[in-house]
Amino acid sequence: MILLNPGPVTLSFGVKRALSSQDLCHREPEFSTLLSELRRGIAGLYPDSNGCRAVLLSGSGTLAIEAMVSSFVPRKGTALVLSNGHYGERIARMLSVAGRPFEVVESAWDEPWNLEALSRRLRTGRPYNRILAVHHETTTGRLNDLEALGELSARWQVPILLDAVSSFGAELISMRKWNIAALAGVANKCLHGAPGLSFVLARHSELESENNVESLYMNLREHDQAQERGSTLFTLPTNLCLALAKALEELREEGGPAGRRSLYLSRFDAIEDAIALAGHLPLISEPAFRSSVLRAFRVRGGDTYERLHARLKKAGFILYAGQGRLSNEIFRVSLMGDIPDASLKKLAEEFRK
Ligand SMILES: Cc1ncc(COP(=O)(O)O)c(C=O)c1O
Fold this sequence. Notes:
By secondary structure, the chain is α/β, with parallel strands linked by helices. The protein has helices at 13-19, 29-43, 61-72, 86-98, 115-123, 146-156, 204-207, 220-228, 238-253, 256-277, 305-314, 341-352; strands at residues 2-3, 52-58, 78-83, 102-106, 128-134, 136-137, 142-143, 160-163, 180-186, 197-203, 281-282, 294-298, 317-318, 320-321, 330-334. The strands form 4 sheets. The protein has a 7-stranded mixed sheet with strand order 2-10-9-8-5-3-4, with helices on both faces. Strands 11-12-15-14 form a 4-stranded antiparallel sheet, with no helix packed on it. Strands 1-13 form a two-stranded parallel ribbon. It binds pyridoxal-5'-phosphate.
């Protein structure tokens, strides 16, 4: 089966083999070595993220984002959330649960971020402490304009905390230039590892500032201190770590995030004409803001997602539904993971039927 959902992805043979290659105790020196290799590997993927450390967590992307929110959004001042989809709305819910003051700058789900409204708020001089945003809004496949946000963030000196769960490893990210204090990512999307392992990549200054987190499991500073010593606070999923090490090796061999982005774009080139011919239109009208990772299409009139999903599943592909208010209108296709060219050809043929 080929997974076209945005993670978990179809694993390569090498990653599957690594997953079951060894039984490893998380308190042994062999694991310390693996842990340091992973932390360095994640931090080293983007050239301007030196000055940052990766903290590994046992859990899905939501855990990493919530840990970032709980650990790095100060109690004093107000956080600003930019939202244009399900995952932006989820960050607002996290802030609400964590009892942090926040304001939301909201746009419709099929619209870009409202950076003018954000600017107006920043100009008021109110004590804003962090900007929270989703890089690739997987709800719609929109790659938000992080460069423009980075300029505003640097100008007003309000650092960004980024949900990079569905962009890290493939889309361009510039930690220093775009004033990103920390980002959350996962093993099982653009990195092509197995699900259940996530991480936060954060500036040293963020990890070394005052520790006032009211959570044991989501305290990133304590996780970081333990991991700096080559240890781990709690059990990390050792097999998933082995798989991620292999996945990172494969990513580096493919030319890092830039290579992976080109790979995904070439895969979409191979199927998009067939989808258009079948009458399904892209949800995001501006091509420059379509991510390389996932594309959303309006289901052609007269057809339904359920019918399309069932037909493709019989042919060996898992298509992905829309979320929330878009669930009856769109389908989503992601081309991450180990997808042979022959499968892409077959997928295009299925859409042409
Ligand atoms: C942008 C974004 N943020 C957060 C999440 C949540 O990740 P998880 O399902 O791993 O908790 C997802 C999942 O697809 C996502 O795409």
